[in-house]
Amino acid sequence: MKAVILAGGLGTRISEETHLRPKPMIEVGGYPLLWHIMKSYSAHGINDFVICCGYKGYIIKEYFANYFLHMSDVTFDLVNNQMEVHEQHAEPWKVTLVDTGAETMTGGRLKRVANYLKDEEAFCFTYGDGVSDVDIAASIAFHQKHGKLATVTAVLPPGRYGALLRDGDKVDGFIEKPRGDGGWINGGYFILSPKVIDFVNDDTTSWELEPLANLAQQDQLRAFEHSGFWQPMDTLREKTLLEELWQSGRAPWKTWK
After folding, report:
1. CA-CA distance, 29 to 170, in Å (whole number)?
2. 216: how many CB neighbours lie within 10 A of its CB?
3. What is the DSSP letter of 135?
4. What is the separation of C-alpha 215 from the centre of its chain, rounded to a whole number of angstroms?
5. Smallest Cα–Cα separation from 40: which of 224, 253, 246, 247?
6. What are the beta bridge partners of residue 191?
7. Lowest mean per-residue pLDDT among 55-59, 69-73, 74-78, 143-147
8. Angle at the Cα of 237 (from 253 to 177), degrees rounded to 5?
9. Distances in Å between the alpha carbon of 237 and those of 132, 159, 242, 251?
10. Which of 31, 34, 158, 160 could form a disulfide with 24 if both were Cys (CB 3.0 to 4.6 A apart)?
11. What's the N-to-C CA distance of the chain in angstroms?
């Protein structure tokens, strides 16, 4: 099964980082966020990726073109113009990088990679700006069992602020950053039939609007609930949170060995 990852947006809410590189290439623990997402899929046996590039997409292409340089020790023999790679740390990945346009919306990016998915019974689809410990294999099994065209992973968003436990005007305690208001939201990590691409009109279509709404209206959308860790990286504060979790050795999304 293939996994399609959106990696072409501008990332304006974290512009301190994205003026230099696409948001999926912002590093956590010395590795691009895109790498973390791909490692999560690989832990569930998915190693064939289609990356939807756009804004500064050449940086993503250069990263994979020089993957050994990033991940291994190397010796450069300048006299003989040779390079020797030591202890090669290669992933079992096939990575297709597709320029889907600088201004294309999320649905349009999916439509632009349709040719790479036409022979698939189903494929994974997610955003390149967040991490989770979602059980991807279980979501695939759920999708195959219900037989509809689309599955979305539903998550409970993390709270942004601490909450007071109150009894009238008496404060009984304090909860540090509880979950949101109890409403489940779109957490990405879709499992889709290639037929859903027919629900996308053109480059101006947002996947989250008409396509998902129409799939729901036609009873072709099901939700796989994930109550574990899920964290987007939209701000520097969230980047710092992910970095702190990684450095502490307590990164919940690190499901690989």
Report:
1. 42
2. 14
3. -
4. 22
5. 253
6. 124, 151
7. 69-73
8. 70
9. 17, 13, 9, 16
10. 34
11. 21
- Sequence letter at residue 162: G
Query: In the prediction, which pLDDT does 182 show?
Result: 63
Instruction: Tell me the residue type at 238.
Output: E
Residue 69 has pLDDT above 90, yes or no: no
Hey, what are 74's tokens? 């190397």
CB 132 within 8 A of CB 226: yes
pLDDT for the residue numbered 20: 87
Average pLDDT, the chain: 91
DSSP-derived pairing of the beta strands 150-155 and 221-226: parallel
- 255 versus 169: which is more confidently predicted? 255
Q: Does the pLDDT of residue 215 top 70, yes or no?
A: yes
Q: Which of 16-20, 102-106, 121-125, 217-221 has the lowest mean pLDDT?
A: 16-20
Residue among 53, 81, 80 at smallest CA distance from 65: 53
Q: What is the DSSP track for 158-213? A: BPSS-EEEEETTEEEEEESS-B-SS--EE---EEE-GGGGGG--STT--TTTHHHH
Give the side-chain half-sphere CA count within 13 A for 127. 24
Between the CA of residue 114 and those of 4, 123, 128, 194, 195, what are the distances in Å? 10, 11, 18, 8, 10
pTM of the entire predicted model: 0.89
Identify the CA nearest to 183 among candidates 150, 217, 156. 156
Residues 152, 137: Cα–Cα separation, whole Å: 14
Contact at 8 Å (CB) between 56 and 92?
no
